[in-house]
Design goal:
globular; 257 residues; alpha/beta; seven-stranded parallel sheet
């Protein structure tokens, strides 16, 4: 099976490319570095020729809410059109748990735009919504830091190890399209502020985490339950404690997507 991974050089994409290759699939990593630009459409026709499945793990660069939405709108439309021309049998989109309900976040609204385009395209597809990655905890902490204080929401989330998400993406990409949504989450529900406190303590980081119900997450104040998966979610097995003791210098994890 030929699988094209759009955004194949990022944190999830690079791991997915390696996973697919070890399973014997013909896998192509596509990104701007390889001459494929989902925003302009450059290189899409060539890289999608003969593809059976396409996994879109591209991500919008840090920008304004309008620019993020424009990125997902333009890129997704280009990809879907190129797939229709190439006759791709399965489009897989990586999205986020909460894309349908965290409306105050420009990033989450952008992912909702992306999901709607896929769902209404008529193309055979599967949308994989993931919870936050353990690998992004240091990014969350840094973005919420002022001096020695880190202000974070106390609402529950259920983060997942990137390697576990990749396992699910590989199964989805090489299976039949569901024309629906698959949610993926880690095994533990924990307040955001509490888990980042544990992460910083593991790293001997002196910053102090303060639980603040008004602290924003991707620019949105959160309500309890917004970041938790539904009852049909795929629940993975790697706990935070296991992940952090086996991941090496996790603070240096790539923030690419």
């Amino acid at each position: 099976m030929k699988v094209v991974v759009l955004g194949g050089s990022g944190l999830i994409g690079s791991r997915l490319v390696a996973q697919l290759a070890t399973r014997g699939h013909q896998v192509v990593s596509a990104s701007r570095a390889t001459g494929v630009d989902v925003v302009t459409g450059a290189g899409l026709a060539e890289v999608l020729a003969g593809a059976d499945s396409v996994v879109d793990v591209t991500n919008a660069p840090p920008s304004s809410a309008d620019d993020i939405a424009d990125f997902f709108r333009t890129a997704t439309a280009n990809v879907l059109a190129a797939e229709a021309t190439a006759g791709v049998a399965h489009h897989v989109t990586l999205s986020v748990v909460g894309a349908d309900r965290v409306h105050d976040s420009g990033y989450f609204r952008g992912k909702a735009v992306q999901e709607r385009l896929v769902q209404t395209s008529g193309r055979p597809h599967t949308i994989v919504r993931s919870t936050q990655f353990f690998e992004f905890l240091h990014v969350i902490a840094d973005s919420a830091t002022s001096g020695h204080e880190v202000r974070l929401s106390p609402v529950l989330f259920q983060p997942v190890a990137a390697a576990d998400l990749v396992e699910v993406l590989e199964r989805v990409a090489t299976g039949a399209p569901t024309n629906g949504v698959v949610e993926v989450a880690g095994p533990e529900q924990v307040p955001i502020a509490d888990l980042v406190t544990r992460a910083l303590a593991r790293a001997a980081d002196p910053r102090v985490v303060l639980a603040d119900p008004h602290a924003t997450y991707f620019d949105a104040e959160l309500r309890e339950g917004q970041l938790l998966p539904g009852p049909e979610a795929v629940i993975t097995t790697t706990t935070f404690d296991h992940w952090v003791t086996t991941s090496g210098d996790w603070r240096a994890s790539s923030s690419g997507a």
